[in-house]
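User: I'm new to structure prediction. If I give you an amino acid sequence, what do you actually give back? Let's try with this one:
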Amino acid sequence: MIYQATTHDITVQIETRFEVEASKPSQDKYLHSYFVTIINDSSDTVQLLRRKWFIQNTRNQTKVIEGDGVIGEQPILNPGEKHQYKSWSPIATPIGKMYGQYKMMNVSSREMFWVDIPKFDLIAPFKLN
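Assistant: Good question. You get back a string of structure tokens that encode the predicted 3D arrangement of the chain. For your 129 residues, that looks like this:
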């Protein structure tokens, strides 16, 4: 399943995968990878400056992750370009959710704006039965 959100003509798509080999349910460690595609459908060149993620589990625990760029980069996207990367997140329960925002900058005007990262599910496959 692809989760998708578009804000200010910037589209963020997310695909997830449960990493069974890296997960340790007996230790409350459920690892999920996610593949992100950011598409610049605007007529301006933009740069991704910061990220803010919210990671929730079914114990009502929310972890907030903030930082510069994504995976050590602050990519610049010209109109029509896309940036892709893969990352991962461990959670302490077999079901959870993630969502967030990217802080972007219009390279020409230097205007800052936020782009939504769609809320997506993190579900260990054995919970789907």
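You can read the tokens as a compact description of the fold. Here is one thing that stands out. The chain has one domain: 2-122.
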